[in-house]
Specification:
The complex is a heterotrimer of chains A (172), B (722) and C (100). Chain A has 172 residues and is an all-alpha fold. Chain A is built from eight helices and one strand; from the N terminus they run ααααβαααα. Chain B has 722 residues and is mainly alpha-helical. Classes of the chains: A mainly alpha (172), B mainly alpha (722), C mainly alpha (100).
């Protein structure tokens, strides 16, 4: 067992555990905090996979901005105590489906005729500064148009959020 | 030079106007006639006919100076199918223009006469609105007759042939809802139908002949047919000519189809004169003359024609002796004279036939119109007498005014008690010589012309026929001479009964002379009846008609006067008149006296009853036909076809198939069940499916999730199997 | 040296947990978080592939996914706030007007 695999397994356990924690917590605040942990774990995966920029974006945008927004809304609405679970019978079908999906995925990956290959050790193969530079060039060269479209999308989302949040009186 | 010698040939372009002008008059009266007075309507119609006569005269003049080919004035193409080509074309030769002149000339005089006649007739019959219809029909008749005589093909001739038949039908049934005595009845309609049906039989023959021509010659144009006939077998020609004779027998009232003509006297008297004496009924004679080239090639058919004509001439003459109705006598006389003409053209004496046709048109029109004058005179007298009676009983007159119903009832009552007055019955006449002198003299001229007394027109034309007969068919000669004897006798009888002696009825005593509008045309006809013989005098240099028709008929023999024949016929005629004087003139009939000839017993009765021909036809044809029709209708159609086949077999089967098999089993139990089940399944399924759409977002998400699982599963299975 | 399969299986497990969250939780905020988790799982797979095949396009995709997620969250949370304002309740089982 290499150090990579060890790290992977540990982080995998953490991410699955925090995901389940988010799913099962009765308190929405706990759920949000579990999700923050989960996002952090995934960010470490990104680092391991040689994507430091995405990892940082994950931490700042997701774990930072978005989850803070979530927590803010939860606090604002005071909906922490909404019961998480209904009676168990209702969960049978989704649970079965979920299990089936996981089994299918595993079967798909293990029975693949061609091995999908291994991930090289990022610390050996990736020059972080170089990777950042390449990513930037790619983003502002080949993917410039989608990038600009994304800015418009964000603008539209912002306008939408403002319109939705306006008091109803103003709407009339 | 403005006119050169051939300039009048341009008149040929006027040919279509002989049809257009009467049609113009017709449509003028048809469209504007409701606003015209009677005088204007009559003037328009007479003018149309008169202008037609003028055009005919111009055409005849153009024909007379035309030495080239017989012109055929094409108006339009009519039928063009494969090799058959028929045009609307007018044939302008001496024969057709002669007929045009006779038709339009006599027609015009009768138009003028009819203005006066119909003016009174429509009033006696209480429907003045029909005055216009009468002249519309008359103009239509002139147009149709012009097509008949002017056409350049057998088909066009047939169009005219049918057209005049239609007008004949319309005019016989002019007072369709009454009988000749104006009583409510369908007698006049029946007479019209009888004429139509008898003519249908003849037209059938004509059509067969036309079909044969088309089959064997491939053409219907006169010249082409005559040309082709020279190359055809004699059997074909004989068949064609005999079938044409059937047509002639129908239209020209020959044995055995003559029975319609006496009944056709139901029409107004101008119609009897124009259509059923002077023009339409001579169409058959014209047809044979026109087809002379064909008949020349078929001697057998010619013999049949001669025998038919001669037999008709004698047969009809004997019937005329026994008639009491003034118009019926003339009707049988017409049939008899048509027999003379047919016999003449059958013998190949076309000029004689046409000559007699022309003179007969003059004097028979004169006789009929004079008879009409007599009838109207009696009507006037009757009216006058009835009026006088009404004056005597003013109380009754007052009572009448109660209301319309009572009025009708009263009139009906009156009709029951007073015997209906028949103004046409010679037994009601007598002594009209004094009350109607003009009519009397005109009638005398007509009678002498018809009887064949020198020098009237009938003498010359009838003698020519008899002369031809004496040379070719001695037996026929004697038959025709005998017919001529009877002719003179019945005419004598008529004149003595009508005009001499004392009035046998108060109407005759009060009879009044007719107005000038009626008598003047009669005078013209009387003049023609006297002078008509000059058309073709049997002296060298006077065969005018013969030379004229030679253009068309090619072979014309001009016979000199044969004093033996003329002497015999004149002697016969004078003897007949003498006998008639002995019987009817010396001791005039008094009221309600039986006819002196009744001493002959059954013989005379048979003549009066027309030799029972109508009864024989009734027994031999009409009754079996009715019974057969009844049988076909009741048994074959009603019981077998309708009740059994349609109702039982067809409807029964259909009912069983539709109600039991198709409706019950196939439709309700089969198709309905299937589709109802289908609908039930759909409903059941959709009821289940409806629960899925519950509005909960998560349940939709579950569906999506399920879909994902299923699709991936499918992909996995497919991959595994592959 | 970690096989790529492991990453993918991990991604699948995380995605399935997120999907379960959407299906079984009634709090729309939790459902939203579950969606974020599913997006995250997809991101993980993308980065793994990107790393395995040594292509940077996967990372670009993830970059865009994060941007879209941010926009989505902004609008979604605004919606939830509005719904809460009008109903004083955000139980999704009581919001069932999404039917014809």
């Amino acid at each position: 067992m290499t150090i990579d695999l060890f790290l992977f397994l540990v982080l995998a356990l953490v991410s699955i555990g925090t995901a389940l924690g988010m799913l099962l917590s009765r308190n929405a605040v706990y759920s949000a905090l579990f999700l923050v942990l989960n996002l952090g774990a995934v960010a470490i995966f990104f680092l391991l996979l040689g994507a430091p920029f995405i990892a940082m974006a994950q931490i700042t945008v997701y774990a930072g901005a978005i989850m803070v927004l979530f927590l803010f809304v939860i606090m604002l609405l005071g909906t922490e105590e909404i019961p998480g679970m209904q009676n168990w019978k209702k969960f049978i079908i989704p649970a079965v489906l979920a299990g089936a999906l996981i089994l299918e995925s595993i079967y798909l990956l293990t029975s693949a005729s061609r091995p999908l290959g291994l991930i090289a050790n990022p610390s050996e193969s990736v020059n972080t500064a170089q990777a950042m530079r390449d990513l930037g060039e790619l983003l502002f060269d080949q993917y410039l148009l989608p990038f600009e479209v994304t800015s418009i999308l964000l603008l539209v989302a912002m306008v939408g959020a403002i319109v939705l949040s306006k008091p109803e009186k103003a709407g009339k | 030079m403005l006119f050169n010698e051939s300039a009048p040939l341009g008149f040929f372009y006027l040919a279509p106007w002989i049809v257009f002008l009467p049609l113009l008059g017709l449509f003028t009266n048809l469209i504007f006639g409701s606003r015209f007075s009677e005088r204007v309507i009559g003037t328009v119609a007479s003018l149309a006919s008169g202008l037609t006569f003028a055009v005919s005269a111009l055409l005849a003049y153009a024909v007379s100076i035309n030495h080239g080919e017989v012109p055929s004035q094409k108006l339009a193409e009519w039928i063009s199918i494969g090799p058959l080509s028929v045009d609307w074309a007018f044939r302008l030769d001496s024969l057709s223009t002669t007929m045009m002149l006779v038709v339009s000339g006599v027609g015009t005089l009768i138009h003028i006469y009819a203005i006066g006649y119909m003016h009174e007739d429509v009033r006696f019959k209480n429907d003045p609105s029909r005055f216009r219809s009468f002249f519309i029909y008359l103009n239509l008749f002139i147009a149709a007759m012009m097509i008949l005589v002017g056409g350049d093909s057998y088909l066009m001739l047939f169009v005219g042939w049918e057209g005049v038949g239609l007008c004949s039908f319309l005019l016989i049934g002019f007072w369709y809802e009454m009988d000749t005595l104006a009583r409510p009845s369908w007698a006049n309609s029946d007479a019209a139908k009888k004429a139509m049906i008898a003519n249908r039989i003849g037209d059938f023959g004509f059509l067969i002949a036309v079909f044969l021509m088309f089959v064997h010659f491939g053409t219907l144009q006169f010249d082409a047919v005559f040309e082709a006939a020279h190359h055809a077998s004699s059997a074909t020609i004989t068949a064609i000519t005999l079938f044409l004779l059937v047509g002639v027998a129908g239209k020209s009232a020959q044995i055995p189809l003559y029975v319609w003509l006496p009944d056709a006297m139901a029409g107004p008297t101008p119609v009897s004169a124009l259509i059923h004496a002077a023009t339409m009924v001579t169409a058959g004679v014209y047809l044979i003359t026109r087809s002379a080239d064909l008949y020349m090639l078929a001697p057998a058919a010619q013999n049949v024609v001669v025998i038919t004509g001669a037999a008709t001439a004698l047969f009809a003459a004997t019937i005329a002796v026994g008639q009491y109705d003034i118009k019926k006598v003339l009707a049988y006389s017409t049939i008899s004279q048509l027999g003379f003409m047919v016999a003449a053209v059958g013998m190949g004496a076309y000029v004689a036939g046409m000559f007699h046709l022309i003179t007969h048109a003059f004097f028979k029109a004169l006789l009929f119109l004079s008879a009409g004058s007599v009838i109207l005179g009696l009507e006037r007298g009757h009216h006058h007498a009835a009026h006088a009676h009404a004056e005597k009983k003013p109380v009754r007159g007052l009572k009448k005014k109660k209301d319309e119903h009572d009025h009708a009832h009263d009139a009906h009552h009156a009709a029951e008690h007073h015997e209906v007055f028949d103004p046409g019955d010679m037994r009601n006449m007598g002594g009209l010589r004094k009350t109607m002198p003009v009519t009397f003299w005109l009638y005398m001229i007509g009678t002498l012309a018809l009887a064949g007394i020198f020098p009237f027109a009938g003498f010359w034309s009838k003698d020519e026929i008899l002369l031809d007969a004496s040379l070719h068919f001695p037996a026929v000669y004697w038959v025709l001479t005998l017919a001529a004897f009877f002719t003179a006798f019945y005419m004598g009888r008529q004149v003595w009964m009508v005009f001499f002696g004392e009035p046998r009825h108060e109407a005759a005593a009060h009879a009044e002379e007719s107005p000038k509008v009626m008598t003047v045309p009669l005078m013209v006809l009387a003049a023609l009846s006297i002078l008509g013989g000059a058309l073709n005098l049997p002296f060298e240099g006077f065969h005018n008609l013969g030379h004229w028709l030679e253009h068309t008929l090619h072979e014309v023999e001009s016979l000199p006067l044969d004093l033996t024949v003329a002497g015999i016929s004149t002697a016969f005629a004078l003897t007949a008149i003498l006998i008639s004087w002995l019987i009817y003139g010396r001791k005039p009939l008094v009221k309600d006296q039986k006819d002196p000839l009744s001493v002959l017993g059954g013989l005379f009765q048979s003549m009066t009853d027309k030799w029972y021909v109508d009864e024989i036809y009734q027994f031999l044809i009409v009754t079996p036909f009715s019974k057969l029709s009844q049988f076909l209708s009741d048994v074959i159609d009603g019981k077998f076809w309708h009740d059994w086949f349609h109702d039982t077999v067809l409807a029964g089967t259909y009912n069983w198939v539709s109600v039991t098999a198709l409706s019950e089993y196939a439709d309700r139990r089969g198709i309905d069940t299937f589709f109802n089940s289908w609908g039930d399944v759909t409903q059941w399924f959709s009821a289940r499916l409806r629960t899925i759409q519950n509005g909960f977002v998560r349940s939709y998400a579950l569906s999506v999730f399920l879909g994902v699982v299923v699709i991936i599963g499918y992909l996995l299975i497919r991959q595994t199997i592959r | 040296m970690v096989p790529l399969n492991y990453y993918i299986i991990l991604s699948a497990i995380l995605f399935t947990i997120g999907a379960l969250g959407v299906l079984i939780r009634r709090n729309p905020l939790i459902i939203f978080m579950s969606i974020e988790l599913m997006l995250n799982a997809a991101n993980l797979a993308l980065i793994a592939f990107s790393s395995a095949f040594n292509e940077l396009d996967g990372q670009i995709f993830v970059f865009f996914v994060i941007a879209v997620a941010a926009a989505e969250v902004a609008v979604g949370l605004a919606l939830i706030v509005q719904i809460f304002k009008s109903r004083h309740n955000i139980n999704v089982d009581e919001i069932n007007q999404l039917k014809g």
